Amino acid sequence: MAPSRSLISRGVDYIAVVATVALGVLAVADVISLNIRERAAELAAIRAFGWPESALSRLVVTEGAIIGLTGSAAGAALGLAAASLFAGQLLATLYLVAGVAATAGVLITATAALLPAQALRRLPAAHLLAQE
Predict the structure, then answer these.
(1) What are the Cα distances from residue 28, in Å, to 1, 2, 33, 83, 104?
(2) In this predicted structure, what is the pLDDT of residue 7?
(3) Residue-number span of the structural domain to which 32 is assigned
């Protein structure tokens, strides 16, 4: 039995997936960068209290992971709901795919937070604290 034409993945489909993931990574990195800029004085004060750079970086990456966890869980749940609606049933493999996608989403967003976490090190703490 030949597969249904609607189930065949083409090269353009994979390109669309990669483009979507790349845009998501850029969006998360942008949100975290904006968050860092808005909280620059607070982060400078935390650094002045003696927090090491590694702890501040972990804080930013953890925020990225939480954003990823929230978005990935919602996306996986909505994906399962849509699959159930369209197919009329949920196969065990769909749960596996949703779990893998959610896990990948968390890892990708945590990785996207690394660049803003590195930018955090370049914040001029003394200048920021003087402005407050």
Answers:
(1) 43, 41, 9, 26, 14
(2) 60
(3) 25-131
Q: What are the residue ranges in the chain where pLDDT is below 50?
A: 1
Q: Token digits for 56?
A: 């501040």
Longest CA–CA span in the chain (Å) reads 73
55: in domain:
yes
How many domains in the chain?
Answer: 1
Q: Would you call 3 helix, strand, or coil by DSSP?
A: coil
Which pLDDT tens digit goes with each residue over 19-47? 988 898 888 888 888 888 888 888 888 88
pTM more than 0.85: no
Q: Is residue 38 part of a domain?
A: yes
Distance of CA 15 to the CA centre of its chain: 19
